[in-house]
Amino acid sequence: MKSISDIWKKWKFTRKYLPNVKNAQQIRWGFECGINRERGQILELIGNWNEAELAFSTMISCAKKINNKSSLAQGKTMMGNIKHRKGEYEKALSLFKEAYQLYANINDSLGRARALSFIGVLSWRQGKYEKAQDYFQQYLTIGEKMKDKKTICTALGNLALVYHVRGEIEKAMAYQKRTLRLAKELDDGRKISITLGNMGITYHDLGNYKKALQCYTRRLSIAEKMGDIRSVAAATGDMGIIYCEQKNYDKAIECHQREMRIAKKLGDKKSTGISLANLGIVYYEQKKFKKALDCYKQSLSISEELDDKRGISIVTGNIGLVYGKQRLFKKALLYHERSLRCAEELKDTRNMSIALGNLANIQMKLGNYEKAEVFLSKAIALASKLNLRYFLCGFLLDKAELFVKQKHFKQAKELLTQARTVAKEIGRAEIVEQCETLSKSIKRK
After folding, report:
1. Which of 13, 234, 323, 398 has minimal CB crowding within 10 Å?
2. Angle at which helices 69-85 and 49-65 cross, to 10°
């Protein structure tokens, strides 16, 4: 008669988590390890991060008990992802580094590469773009050494993200096109879908809304054929952003409402919060500030529930913009200050620069020109350091407007020249136009 241990060893799921099973207790721990891995992934997928964290914590505990280093490394990586999503970046970094070391100890090159990728994404999120590029380059090198096309494809896509955020848009597009070619070779529908979405964002930032919409439409078509509901929601939301830019507000609202319906159906709180924030932006552009505020506050409530500090930082900034439009400047300051605090806590230099720019704008409206200048100088310094040209040209224009108010026309002209140059380089026609208008105003004075 076969023992329980022999029977369990033959089951693929059990063998994966019980390579060295010795007794019934270890069988139970191995089973719990595997079950909590699968459970945690599902909970993460639907945006239930706190429950997912508990599941991965149990997985790590069980992996230690059965001395399964591979499962322990996976558990730490998955837990790191949850901490990352919640904005607990230092804890996430520590977990990813521990996972990297575990993978190195068991000579798992692919696991080591994935850990490097996660550390790179975390660095990118914090605005440490040079570090992120270095990690992604190491990730790419391992992929090329192993001749693993899937790893190479992901690494190229990640490098494109770095070039994009640093304002090297043409380089980002070149990497995205390479990623797309590889994804097609691999016949990886999900990777094709994600890459088309990223290319759409790049075209959007270049002001080429027609091509951006084509990318999002292709992504939507692929996602619908694959039955990938999550990507359907993402593509629909991206299309809504383009329609909003084109002032086609009815279509934008229709897209974001569909995006939200899907997110709610999936039970994905994070995506529900994003769709609410996107709806808020449409209402803000329509000057329907009450509706915008309602959407933003619902989105903020979800971010607070999830303890999503990055989400809190972004949405509080949006709420501050609404109060600024309503001339409720004290309220606006409170929300922009909270946005800045969250960004500083996360060491998210990109959102720090945005929050500083927003604070400067409110201080300018209050007539506090010295404070406004301090905030703008900090925002410009950060945007310059990170090569965030999309925001930099706006900050330079704002500072020029500030100098005009102070009758410092010479300095204003110099800043307008800089702002116009940067705006032309990245195709921000509206900033170029505003620079021209302000230049004419200075000449008249």
Report:
1. 13
2. 160
Place of tokens 């607070």: 304
Kindly list the structural domains of the chain, giving each domain's residue range(s) and its CATH number in brackets, ordered by start: 1-107 (1.25.40.10), 388-445 (no CATH)
Dist. CA 314–CA 300, nearest whole Å: 9
Q: Are 362 and 331 in contact (CB under 8 A)?
A: no
Contact by Cβ (8 Å): 172, 163:
yes
The model's pLDDT over 45-85, given as tens digits with 9 standing for 90+, comes to 776 778 999 999 999 999 999 889 999 999 999 999 999 88
Residue recorded with tokens 């995006």: 259
Provide the strand spans (E) within 147-256: none
Maximal CA-CA distance, the chain: 99
Instruction: Classify residue 11 by its DSSP letter.
Output: S
377 and 357 in contact (C-beta within 8 Å)?
no
Cβ count within 10 A of residue 25 = 11
The 3 state secondary structure assigned to 63-100 is HHHCCCHHHHHHHHHHHHHHHHHCCCHHHHHHHHHHHH
Asked if 323 and 329 count as a contact pair (C-beta separation under 8 A), the reply is yes
DSSP output for 373-391: HHHHHHHHHHHHHHT-HHH
